[in-house]
Please model this.
Amino acid sequence: MTTHILRHGETHYSRQYLVNGDPTRAIPLSKDGVLSCGLVWHTLPLRQVSTWLSSEFPRARQTASRLMGVPEPGPVVDARLNELDYGDFEGGPFLKYASWLQQHGGRCRPPGACESQREGIERMLVGLQAAVEHPSPRVIVCHGLLVSVLHWYRERSAGDPMPLFFPEAPYVQPISFEDEDLLRCVKSLLADIAAEPESDPGPRCDAENSRAEEELDVATFDRVNHPHAQRDLPDA
Model:
């Protein structure tokens, strides 16, 4: 009973490091994103997959359809696997959102958003938990943040707190779990989030402080942009 979880292919938004958390925006895969879908055939036994799942986003559904090899029937769509809601940062540079996130923390909702980063991660994890109810083997096409969190879980040391910024997830490269391990992972991560303080130190999450215009400091900029740094990149 196995689940293979992967990030969708590249889009022109993700190439430019722009954020997209609105599934109604038609942002398709780039040419490179389409080509990358063909590489997974050398990694996974795709013809043996019993259940395909994806988020609501066009880029995730397009990736799943290309991996399936046929346009219909499409994947099972689960909105719990959606990308974060970026609120007023929608369509803008990731660095502006990252600056705001650094200032306000993972439990604060961005202006105009319906969820915080931590609430979004919790939602995605619940979607993963529900996926095991479908026939196995399964392939889940989702977004970079969820895949990054799963990689962090596997690589972390005991007692490590969940960071704000995670290593960037590669496009269309699966991370695989047996059901028991996946459920254990989800339970552990949900417990980690629940154990965090209810509010983060620093500025309040009110409208006056919501738009973080100051630049990221050099260390943070390197952490977000360096190819081997920790980063929670936009997932468009």
